[in-house]
Design goal:
By secondary structure, the chain is an alpha+beta fold. About 55% of the residues lie in helices and about 10% in strands. Helix 8 packs parallel to helix 10. The chain is globular. Keywords: FAD, Flavoprotein, Oxidoreductase.
Amino acid sequence: MSSYNAPLNDIRFALYDVLGAEALFQRLGYADASRDIVDAVLEEAARFTGSVLAPLNSVGDEVGCSFDAASGDVTTPPGFRQAYQQFVDGGWSGLTSAADFGGQGLPHVLGVPLNEMINAANLAWGNFPLLSHGAVHALEHHGQDWQREVFLKPLVEGRWTGTMCLTEPHCGTDLGLLKTRATANADGESYSISGTKIFITAGEHDFTDNIVHLVLAKLPDAPPGAKGISLFVVPKFKVAGDGTVGERNGVRCGSIEHKMGIKASATCVINFDDAQGYLVGGAHKGLQAMFTMMNTARLGVGLQGIGLSERAYQNALRYARERLQSRALSGARFPDKPADPIIVHPDVRRMLLSIKSLVEGSRLLALHAGSLIDVAKRAADPKEREEAETLVSFLTPISKACQTEWGIENTYNAVQCFGGHGYIREHGIEQLARDARITTLYEGTTGIQALDLIGRKTAASHGAGLKLFLAQVQAFVKQHQDDQAMAEFIVPLARKAEEWASLTTDILQRAQDNPEELGAASYDYLFYSGYVVLAYWWARSVAAANASAHGADFRQSKLETARFYYARILPRTLTHAAAIQSGAAPLMAMADARFGE
């Protein structure tokens, strides 16, 4: 069975030494986010996830959720409901939510390590509270005053959970095709919602008495396509304007999916039959509210890739130190033993260092995105708030797609470190690989993230987010240009930043003549961007470690991992750049019929 211990030392380094969280919290007016408080939160989160959630991970995978077709009820695996109650009793559901709605009002960025720990400890369990945060953010930004008052408090406190009901059997990414309909009721306030949604995470469960569904539907006068989408809040049990909970609504779970992984996460078909709901935001304005939910969820899913990668690394490292096999090529390292541990072998080190460099770099990317959300909410300067919003929007598809794709790579490498023992259930590593596979699919596939990055976040905005990020890179390069200890990172980082800007300009220019160029370049552009972003954070990690009070081994570990990243991972950009420069022709030239019968 795999084990997990939260990497508090590296989380604190990332928060305090690299990101300067203490000064940031003070500047943004988070009076309660002192270092003592933050450390206490991290310690308790590590205790809860390590001792309560992690032991349930294999149980959830073996037992899964069960569905009663007669009642439509879903029962979660043993211990899951009790763990959720401990989660609620500990105040974790409202850690970063506003105090006005029952939350603790701590910085959003503190939710990042909490969610990483949850995902590492028990990804399937973590899916139940995950989408409540998206529902909270959507209602905060787009809900009416009474909706915020009635729905937000029980969601923030964890007494209710939330879902996102977007996908339909015939309609995934292209939501303009959805068939769910909403008609106004005679009371002049509510609507009747009818239709079927699929792949609804936590759509039904036994954790809470009520579940709040945020549902995309179309009104009778809706214009065609995505512009005709509206958003409705539809509770499992009817809720009046004064907060009174009434009879069962016309909402029922039709079935749950049988999946490759995350078997303890209820993935539901939800049927709405004249269910009572309330319009959120304006009519036909659901797309904006949807993206508020979606972007929150996408950053959260990126953290799933990090969490799974961290757990995979810890167990692969332990196994590599224990497993004896063959001798080092340069001679026996442990002559008193019958063989050397496999960590002496270069290829095992390649896999371990690949995981380590991608995990620790990704952690900084995720924490940076979280801190930008805080800046966008709390900074005194309107321009700083606007720039933070633009930058986190730009980084969201990179975070979601790269961190989840790297999660698959990392869990694969962990299985490979175990050899045949990784393929069997005994060590729990194969579960991590199976669970990781979904993360590149839900909340928008990798291809959708790539199109979002090159299309909406770059072409449509004239590269606004990229320019802001490159400005940060250039400022860092200028700050350290005369520091010989940093030259091995500063010179290639500066070169990659220039190439990133040049590739972007080239793609956008080609797309003026052929729009297919955007789609053809999108995948490779996404990963090129992700590897350069991590190169920046690894350079900053070395600089922060050099200036820190951490011990020599810690500082040397950061330096050597950064060197590995620059030597072995960053060159992947060469392949992506070559693919981008090849243009659309190699992809689009073949006629459909020539693909085969």
